[in-house]
């Protein structure tokens, strides 16, 4: 027993010594960058917990203290990141190629893909991203009538028109509605949008994946495989999804192999789009299920959060509702309930963008040392992002940037036009990423859904906050990422005026 204790002690000391050496080696690379929190070996690990609970405050405090007009901040722990500000640096960040600053690499770290889904998933080609950029976006207009049909049906089921006020948890309600609508778009002929078990697996997967990855990220690398086995429900969810989708996917793989890419009767759906791009080594049921889940993961909760936040802001500021109704009714009277019509709703676009302006951070991971033109070097393995929330509250960037101005992004009063639409690249607005090839590939579908749902609500419902409050509920933060308040409620009734 005594020798066992001694061996264990030696092992612990050796491991701590290795960790300290690795920490000091990495820390030496960023000594030239101002540090948020402790830059000590133990303090930086403790700082990870503070970052988890209030990362946005850490960034904003550093931004104010360092006066980062053209500078950077770092956090020197085991999940190191560097944030930069100033338009020149943000523009360089936007233009950097994927081979140097990787969006995929950051997602792998953020979602702990190596541990939660497996190294084979993170190392495989992420072809579903190009499918989103190409096949999916090409089909938004083609399949938009189905999106509208499912949206109306979802409102009838989840928010029926009533004469009296009905109180609902906004985020939870909209997550389930958006899941139906998205799956009507992805699988228009398979009726999966009506399968309660399938929809529950989709909504649960996003929550389980985020929570599991967040907890795992708080532990040292050496312990993450063990923690994953103890807490992760992701494998169970994927197993259930395989039971549901496996037979259909096996049949589609067989038909695609035997009949070629353009066989008669081939559905225009997500499976077909994925099979057109799937590398030969990844043409398996398991890989297709991962790609389907990932394709839905990105937009499901983001869309629901932005929709909830926008409605919270409008309910707290009812003076915006009538101008929006007038715009929506005028555009629809001329163009109908079409995707083209929603692209002409500039006031609605501006309100969504303003409500989303104070979001979180978007990071990319340095695949190798990356040096900005001002000499700042991002060490390989570190993630780098822009100080989006702090910059967007900065009065030198936005006039009255700490206040809500719903029509901030339009010009003109008689025929308003967008200064910069919500889907357009904008270095001062990074809800959908920093632009270029790294702009969110699914943003066009997300904004089409958002505008359709908001238009339907404003035309058919009155809305208010409980107690007719005039202050929107505060958001919830995980690290630097902001989400809508999942406990907050909205009240709906049939429109009276």
From TrEMBL:
A Pfam family of this chain: p450
InterPro entries: Cyt_P450, Cyt_P450_E_grp-I, Cyt_P450_sf
Keywords: Heme, Iron, Membrane, Metal-binding, Monooxygenase, Oxidoreductase, Transmembrane, Transmembrane helix
Residues where heme binds: 440
Listed GO MF terms: heme binding; iron ion binding; monooxygenase activity; oxidoreductase activity, acting on paired donors, with incorporation or reduction of molecular oxygen
Transmembrane annotation, as ranges: 205-223
Cofactor(s) listed: heme
PANTHER family recorded: CYTOCHROME P450, P450, PUTATIVE (EUROFUNG)-RELATED
Family: Belongs to the cytochrome P450 family.
Protein name: Cytochrome P450
């Amino acid at each position: 027993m005594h020798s066992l204790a001694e061996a264990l002690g030696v092992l612990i000391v050796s491991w701590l010594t290795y960790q300290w050496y690795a920490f000091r080696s990495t820390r030496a690379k960023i000594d030239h960058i101002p540090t948020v929190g402790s830059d000590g070996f133990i303090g930086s690990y403790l700082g990870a917990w503070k970052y988890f609970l209030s990362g946005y405050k850490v960034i904003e405090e550093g931004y104010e203290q360092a006066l980062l007009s053209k500078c950077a901040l770092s956090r020197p722990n085991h999940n190191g990141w560097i944030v930069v500000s100033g338009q020149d640096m943000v523009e360089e960040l936007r233009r950097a190629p994927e081979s140097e600053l990787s969006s995929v690499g950051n997602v792998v770290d953020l979602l702990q893909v190596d541990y939660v889904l497996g190294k084979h998933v993170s190392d495989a080609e992420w072809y579903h991203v190009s499918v989103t950029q190409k096949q999916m976006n090409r089909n938004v207009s083609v399949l938009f009538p189905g999106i509208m049909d499912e949206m109306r049906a979802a409102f009838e089921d989840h928010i029926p028109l009533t004469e009296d006020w009905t109180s609902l948890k906004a985020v939870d309600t909209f997550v389930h509605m958006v899941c139906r609508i998205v799956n009507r778009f992805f699988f228009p002929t398979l009726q999966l949008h009506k399968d309660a078990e399938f929809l529950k697996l989709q909504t649960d997967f996003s929550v389980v994946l985020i929570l599991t990855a967040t907890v795992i990220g708080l532990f040292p690398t050496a312990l993450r495989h063990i923690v994953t086995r103890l807490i992760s429900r992701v494998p169970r969810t994927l197993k259930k999804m395989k039971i549901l989708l496996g037979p259909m996917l096996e049949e589609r793989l067989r038909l695609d192999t035997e009949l070629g890419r353009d066989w008669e009767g081939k559905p225009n759906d997500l499976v077909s789009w994925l099979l057109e791009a799937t590398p030969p080594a990844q043409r398996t049921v398991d890989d297709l299920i991962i790609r389907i889940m990932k394709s839905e993961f990105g937009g499901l909760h983001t869309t629901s959060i932005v929709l909830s936040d926008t409605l919270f802001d409008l309910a707290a500021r009812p003076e915006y509702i009538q101008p929006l109704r007038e715009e929506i009714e005028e555009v629809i009277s001329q163009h109908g309930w079409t995707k083209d019509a929603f692209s002409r709703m500039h006031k609605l676009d501006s309100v969504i963008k303003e409500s989303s302006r104070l979001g979180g951070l978007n990071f990319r991971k340095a695949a190798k040392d990356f040096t900005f033109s001002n000499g700042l070097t991002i060490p390989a393995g570190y993630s780098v992002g822009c100080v989006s929330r702090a910059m967007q509250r900065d009065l030198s960037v936005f006039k009255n940037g700490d206040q809500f101005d719903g029509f901030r992004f339009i010009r003109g009063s008689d025929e308003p036009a967008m200064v910069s639409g919500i889907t357009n690249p904008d270095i001062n607005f990074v809800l959908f990423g920093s632009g270029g090839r790294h702009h969110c590939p699914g943003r066009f579908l997300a904004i089409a859904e958002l505008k359709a749902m908001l238009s339907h609500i404003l035309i058919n419902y009155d809305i208010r906050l409980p107690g007719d409050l005039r202050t929107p509920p505060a958001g919830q933060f995980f690290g630097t990422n902001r989400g809508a308040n999942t406990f907050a409620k909205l009240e709906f009734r049939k429109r009276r005026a």
